[in-house]
From TrEMBL:
This is Hexosyltransferase. It is a single-pass type II membrane protein. One of its GO terms (cellular component) is Golgi membrane. The keyword Plastid does not apply. PANTHER family: GALACTURONOSYLTRANSFERASE 4-RELATED, HEXOSYLTRANSFERASE. It holds the Pfam family GAUT_1. Its EC number is 2.4.1.-. SUPFAM superfamilies: Nucleotide-diphospho-sugar transferases. One of its GO terms (molecular function) is polygalacturonate 4-alpha-galacturonosyltransferase activity.
């Protein structure tokens, strides 16, 4: 019997424990549910305003398209905006006639219109008649008042036209003045460079023995050695030329195989000679010539010499400023400098050479340029980087295709190219008689109708069909005007070109690019230190 009673009690205890655990689990689950409900209710209270606002925006977007509303002929929003535009015109006229009270009243009603329109745009509810009617009535009465004091529509149109014309004239004048001032800044020689020229010229006048040596060096065999690499630079800027030469030498694999042919004018000749005689160029050869000793380059042979010496040309460059119709950059003295046109006479200047690289004085060389001499030009005369990847740099941008002489012989969509780094096959040049072509086009443009000024337009005509495109990495342009050239493009370039007004030796140079030029200046030169201090 005892065993049976014990056996009976064990299942009762087990059932009791089971129900206890079940109740505990239910209470725990209820607690968790209550906790989550409270937590989500708090979140709902926090985010409720945002949800309601989003719902409002969505509903308003469904209710009203404000663009369609303001364009609708029957909407009050359209009437308010039209009244507001007319009122703004009368505000200007009222102020011109010193009627400040009327101008203030109109401005007040304009603000009321703006508030109604902005409210409609924000809430998505169209402007109602009750809201718009008082504003439209009061604004209409003010407009009638303006008409009563002779501000009618005809007067409004005349006044607005004269006002717009005056603003345009002021804007044009400001644009021309800024362009002229920028051009003057670009043309002006900094005091430090002028100081350097004076000091170098003084040195040259003292170098009597060096002067005799320089005359003998003109017959050096390196100057015509076809196994060496020849470069020509035509410039009257000593420091700029020194950077071109120095950067080419530093980045060359074999500097002793380089020959530089520099041509300058009679004023800078002594300073240029003194600089290169006093600087180490790692064994490279430098020849400096004076353009005034090129007696063969005269008016009877060269049309450009005749044109530059004509009274009309002298008056254009050196006479009083004639008016706003002349593009300021075309009055840059570089166009009247024969040095700028000397590039078309390279075969005559160097009759014993077969290949030569032309470099402008505003470039910096970053890689060895000797591989240029082994490039296959496929029988062409000029190897150059094309510029039609840039905006509008095609023939029609440089030449007057309304003239039948141009339009009958050239394709306006032909890709332009750049001076600054050019490899010339002088044998092919002589064979194609490019200089004679240049003379022909200069004579055709004696009246300036085919192109304005400069050397690139006649070059595009003279080298037409004779130019071999080079890889763009040989010559990257724009560092004198473009603020946003990709650094990777600059780093990969063999030559970077500071074409434009912001030359690296000027204060208005682009600061980001200045170090690329300054690092090739011989800062240890005593004259540079003295002139910088002065």
């Amino acid at each position: 019997m005892r065993r049976r009673a014990a056996d009976f009690r064990r299942p009762v205890r087990r059932r009791f424990a089971y129900w206890i655990w079940l109740l505990l689990g239910a209470f725990s689950l209820a607690g968790l549910v209550l906790f989550f409900l409270q937590h989500h209710y708090r979140e709902y209270r926090v985010y409720r305003p945002f949800l309601e606002r989003n719902a409002k925006v969505e509903n308003s977007a469904k209710r009203l398209n404000f663009t369609e509303e303001i364009l609708s002929v029957t909407s009050f929003s359209r009437q308010l905006s039209e009244q507001m535009v007319l009122a703004k015109a009368y505000v200007i006229i009222a102020k011109e006639h010193n009627n400040l009270h009327l101008a203030w009243e109109l401005s007040s009603k304009i603000r009321s219109c703006q508030l109604l329109l902005s409210k409609a745009a924000m809430t998505g509810d169209p402007v109602t008649m009750e809201e718009a009617e008082p504003v439209i009535k009061s604004l209409s009465s003010l407009i009638f008042k303006a008409q009563d004091v002779h501000y009618d529509i005809a007067t409004t149109i005349v006044m607005m036209k004269s006002y717009i014309q005056a603003l345009e004239e002021r804007a044009n004048t400001a644009t021309i003045q800024s362009t002229v001032f920028a051009q003057l800044s670009a043309e002006a020689l900094p005091k430090s460079l002028h100081c350097l020229n004076v000091k170098l010229m003084t040195d040259w006048l003292k170098m009597t023995s060096r002067q005799k040596f320089s005359h003998k060096s003109r017959i050096s065999p390196q100057l015509s050695d076809k196994n060496l690499y020849h470069f020509c630079i035509f410039s009257d800027n000593v420091l700029a030329t020194s950077v071109v030469v120095n950067s080419t030498v530093i980045n060359a694999d074999h500097p002793k195989h380089l020959v530089f042919h520099i041509v300058t004018d009679g004023i800078i000749y002594g300073a240029m000679k003194a600089w290169f005689l006093s600087n180490d160029l790692k064994g490279a050869t430098v020849e400096v010539q004076n353009i005034e000793e090129f007696h063969w380059l005269n008016e009877s042979y060269s049309p450009i010499v005749k044109q530059l010496h004509s009274p009309e040309s002298r008056a254009f460059y050196f006479g009083p400023y004639q008016g706003v119709n002349i593009e300021p950059k075309l009055q840059n003295p570089k166009f009247v400098s024969l040095l700028n046109h000397l590039r078309f006479y390279i075969p005559e200047i160097y009759p014993l050479l077969e290949k030569i690289v032309f470099l402008d004085d505003d470039v910096v060389v970053q890689k060895d340029l000797t591989p240029l001499f082994s490039l296959d030009l496929h029988g062409n005369v000029n190897g150059a980087v094309e510029t039609c990847l840039e905006a509008f740099h095609r023939y029609y941008k440089y030449l007057n295709f309304s003239n039948s002489i141009i339009s009958s012989k050239f394709d306006p969509q032909t890709c332009g190219w750049a001076f600054g780094l050019n490899i010339f096959d002088l044998g092919a040049w002589r064979k194609a008689n490019v200089t004679a072509k240049y003379h022909y086009w200069q004579e055709q443009n004696a009246d300036g109708t085919l192109w304005k000024l400069g050397t690139l337009p006649p070059a595009l005509l003279s080298f037409y069909g004779l130019t071999e495109p080079l890889d763009r990495r040989w010559h990257v342009l724009g560092l004198g005007y473009d603020l946003n050239i990709d650094n990777r493009l600059i780093e990969s370039a063999a030559v970077i070109h500071f074409n434009g007004n912001m030359k690296p030796w000027l204060k208005l140079a682009i600061g980001r690019y200045k170090p690329l030029w300054h690092r090739y200046i011989n800062q240890s030169h005593p004259h540079l230190q003295d002139c910088a201090t002065a």
